[in-house]
Design a protein that fits this description.
Elements lengths: L1 H16 L10 H11 L5 H9 L2 H28 L7 H22 L8 H5 L6 H7 L9 H14 L14 H16 L4 H17 L5 H43 L1
Helix pairs in contact: 1-5, 4-9, 4-10, 5-9, 5-11, 9-10, 9-11
Length: about 260
């Protein structure tokens, strides 16, 4: 299960690289405008920068987004699929994980394809809207885990038609937020003590995605709503499937007894 999940996540990068080959990024203006409208006429990154525009805050957020997120995400995946304590939830967790990548990362992303604030100027021609944000992110250019460096790398791959490690640009919805939501839901189900911490981390991840220019705020909101819907649908449906299997196996056993 671990190997399959890692391979599936890697395949997502290859699939995502091909998303813009059709009509390109058509939804950035609409999504940015919706984002601004539901945040009282202000692009959300401006709220964050109003109280946290600091290089050291930026470097901390970059470290979390580019390093700790991967540790938290894949350690949780490994723990769920290998620990005896999680065996009652294992199949449902893995199904939620896979369906989230398929529905959010592939179906929804390719249907409403957007590049995100970091690339807004490139795909719309409007370099002013997120210009100040991009200028601030450039302050860590050349530093380890720099969001600005990785964004430049992704755009170079896209612009030159190449593929590489982590290649592919797709903002809506956010898989960074989606995967943390999967873990938050299941960790909360397993431990009330840990629940507040994982939900705080989810909120931090959502804000980080906006702070670093990877996503519009609605990218995270839609991910949380969609993953939660998948989680509750599977939580309701899987016991029903189990009961149907139990009834079917009971009827089959009864038939065997009668025939004998």
């Amino acid at each position: 299960m671990v190997t399959a999940s890692l391979l599936f996540s890697s395949m997502f990068s290859t699939i995502k690289t091909g998303f813009p080959l059709g009509d390109g990024f058509q939804f950035d203006v609409a999504q940015a405008n919706i984002d601004k409208a539901i945040h009282f006429g202000v692009d959300p990154w401006r709220y964050l920068y109003a109280f946290a525009e600091n290089v050291w805050v930026l470097r901390l957020i970059e470290l979390n987004y580019n390093v700790f997120w991967f540790i938290f995400t894949y350690f949780t995946l490994y723990w769920v699929v290998t620990s005896p304590r999680t065996s009652p939830l294992r199949v449902r967790y893995v199904l939620t994980w896979f369906l989230s990548w398929i529905i959010i990362g592939s179906v929804m992303a390719s249907t409403w394809l957007s590049a995100g604030p970091a690339f807004y100027g490139f795909v719309t021609g409007d370099t002013a809207r997120f210009g100040e944000q991009m200028a601030f992110l450039a302050s860590t250019a050349g530093e380890p885990n720099s969001a600005f460096n990785f964004q430049a790398y992704l755009w170079h791959l896209y612009d030159s038609g190449q593929t590489g490690i982590g290649s592919g640009i797709s903002a809506f919805p956010s898989m960074h937020v989606g995967v943390v939501t999967v873990n938050a839901l299941f960790i909360s189900e397993m431990s009330r003590r840990l629940a507040p911490y994982v939900w705080v981390y989810l909120a931090f991840t959502m804000m980080s995605s906006v702070y670093l220019g990877w996503h519009y705020a609605i990218d995270g909101y839609v991910s949380v709503i969609t993953v939660t819907a998948i989680y509750w649908a599977l939580r309701k449906l899987m016991p029903e499937f189990a009961r149907l299997r139990w009834r079917a196996s009971g009827q089959a056993a009864e038939g065997v007894v009668q025939n004998s």
